[in-house]
Specification:
Number of helices: 0
Shape: globular
Radius of gyration: 14 Å
Largest sheet: 7 strands, mixed
Order of helices and strands: EEEEEEEEEEE
Helix content: under 10%
């Protein structure tokens, strides 16, 4: 399984950014796609996730500013973030996990998002 993330970069505070993730190597049915982030000196944290049925969850810090979506036919996932803040600066990782048999948990390589003030 491979996950490849796209879309990181430098953006000014208040701006928007779209991250995309392409997954290959499996069918990913009954799985969760998610975005996590890790800022310097901090633990990796969940940003948003979406089930194969479209149920979404967001961290409180991005709720209302972010929208996660997935295309089950193309095995792709996107995260649209708006009203970006300097504290959104982090390496963002895409993730796919399945919690029913056969279970799996895969990570992409990460993409850096820098929000300048």
């Amino acid at each position: 399984v491979q996950l490849q993330a796209f879309g990181g970069g430098v953006v000014q505070a208040g701006g928007s950014l779209r991250l995309s993730c392409a997954a290959s190597g499996s069918t990913f049915s009954s799985s969760y796609f998610g975005w996590y982030r890790q800022a310097p000196g901090k633990q990796r944290e969940l940003v948003a996730r979406i089930s194969s049925g479209g149920t979404t969850n967001y961290a409180d810090s991005v709720e209302g500013r972010s929208t996660i979506s997935r295309d089950n036919r193309k095995n792709t996932m996107s995260l649209q973030m708006t009203a970006l803040k300097p504290e959104d600066t982090a390496v963002y990782y895409c993730n796919v996990r399945r919690i029913i048999t056969p279970t799996y948990n895969f990570w992409g390589q990460g993409t850096l998002v820098t929000v300048s003030s």
